[in-house]
Amino acid sequence: MDSLSSLWNAFNFMPEDQASTWAPAVDHLNTLITNAAIFCTVAIVGTMLYFAIRYRRRSEDQEIAYIEHNTILETVWTVIPSIICIFLFYFGFVTYHETRNPPANALEVNVTARKWAWTFQHTNGKTDEANLVVPLGQPVRLIMRSKDVLHSFFVPAMRIKEDVMANIYTFTWFNPVKLGTFHIFCAEYCGKDHSAMLGSVKVVTSEEYADYLHDRGAVADTRSPAEIGKELYTVKGCNACHSLDGSRLVGPSFKGLTGSIREFENGVPPQKADENYIRESILLSQAKVVKTYPAGAMPSFEGLITDDEIEAMIAFIKSQK
Ligand code: CUA
């Protein structure tokens, strides 16, 4: 049994640590596909070589057999691989679906990539360079953006890798099931120090996490992004058109906005209000006008608001449940 399993895993080059809930499923699928590919390569090339030698032409005047098609054989070699492909698709889809849909109770952390470092900001405003500290057994949703070029957030032990871009948020999530420190790499070539764009995921107990979160050190502004957003709400004049209590002003209320399905004027298809939707509504305010609201009423804030301020506004709007 042991030798069978070591044979099965002979070509499994995944990291030893399976630190997230879906790591075993990812590894299993990866091993299955790799082994199936090796088996087919050996079987097909082996048979081909054997036939080439066994049935080689032995003299200039040798008669060559005329072989017509064989319906049964061709049906078998089409149907069996198709069934295998459907199974691989099914297992791949189930795992992929899980990796794209974080649970509602996930902890949220903002990730900012720049040449050549990672910054992590927790919802209370705690900011950390290079270290993503998370509590064991708690799903973590990452909201990621780049300050410059394309990067890719890669944590092999968690089996997550997701591109990080400027001007749009990308998301990933994982549920850490193992205490310890795990490497973060940048997996997209981003310039001179790409290979030094490193960090760590530190999985700690919930007590250690609480201590970590509340130790803010010597920062000038200890407010959370949501609190900063609350101030911006009046400073930037959002309050003139957007209520917080659900009442209708010039624009839609912020209450219960996040996660709701928005319907739009001008035949724009409905969409769930996520971070990208809010960002777009601030910068390209005319792209999607909510149904029954006047077009042209919302000015564009392009150039009038920083990325950090947008993130604070998003945190504030999300807090208006
Ligand atoms: Cu960032 Cu490579």
- E-strand count: 12
The class by helix and strand makeup works out as alpha+beta
Q: How much of the polypeptide forms β-strand, as a percent range?
A: 15-25%
Task: Give the CA-CA distance, first to last residue.
Answer: 54 Å
Order of helices and strands: HHHEEEEEEEEEEHHEEHH
SSE layout:
Blueprint: H1 2-8, H2 23-54, H3 71-100, E1 107-114, E2 117-122, E3 127-129, E4 131-135, E5 140-146, E6 151-155, E7 160-164, E8 170-174, E9 180-186, E10 199-204, H4 206-214, H5 225-235, E11 261-262, E12 271-272, H6 275-283, H7 307-319
Parallel strand pairs: 1-5, 4-10
Antiparallel strand pairs: 1-2, 2-3, 5-8, 6-7, 6-9, 9-10, 11-12
The protein binds dinuclear copper ion (CUA).
Dinuclear copper ion binds at residues 116, 151, 186, 188-190, 194, 197.
Structure commentary:
It contains seven helices and twelve strands. It is elongated and about 95 Å long. The protein has helices spanning 2-8, 23-54, 71-100, 206-214, 225-235, 275-283, 307-319; strands spanning 107-114, 117-122, 127-129, 131-135, 140-146, 151-155, 160-164, 170-174, 180-186, 199-204, 261-262, 271-272. The N and C termini lie far apart (54 Å). It binds dinuclear copper ion (CUA).
